[in-house]
Write a structure and sequence with these properties.
68% strand, 15 strands, 0% helix, mainly beta, two-stranded antiparallel sheet, twelve-stranded antiparallel barrel
Length: 247
Amino acid sequence: MLLALITAQPVRAQLNETDTLKLHLKGTVSGSVLAGNISRTLLLNRLDAVYAQPGWGFAARADYQYGSTRHRRTENDLDAWNFLYLRPLSRAYPYAMLLVETNFRRKVESRVQPGLGLSYSLLHRQQNLLRLSLTASWERTRYGGTQFENHSDTTANVIETWRATGRLFGRHHLAHDRLRLRYEVWCQQSVEDRANYRYRAEGGAEVPVSKHVALRATARYSYEHVVLAGFRPDDLFVTYGLTFSNF
């Protein structure tokens, strides 16, 4: 049995796509439940908040992911993205960010990453947006072990490094807003260790059924080259559901 609940599109860093200055909120509960010969539960919860003034703005997103297989926990993850912007309604604007993450599946006990960056809109229209962002950040990750793949130091469970990050974001409203597409790709490379890199891609399609509700399908893929020994470096999640928003 497949249970599709609620899912929402990410709104972080897209402040200048809005036509008002109010606080924009989106909530998410999405996933699937399998019962019978194989028991599998996967739930993804998301809360987005975006606010913009001509001089400054902020965007915050918090994801919580829970999963189990045959009553054995497989996911229990927190993923928080926080951005503070200067002149966010401009075509190009600087920002400060703070990323906080845990990953039960890969035994990442904590990951903290503050940084500074710049976003530029390659395409900036009401129905189409394409943006490129570049960020310099420092990262501290604590793992639940000391034996790594693709990392030479096996004496400590903490890896600290400086990173360069590139991000491409796209949003398109097609067929007179009957179809909405969003996608983004993150690539993060350590400037101190060429083997320490990761990337993430996420895409979603929506079909609106009313002003505040839309049917949605989402796919998310992530890869980390440095992982604890015995763990796969990649994960793929596909969910279906509904989008609810206050705008």
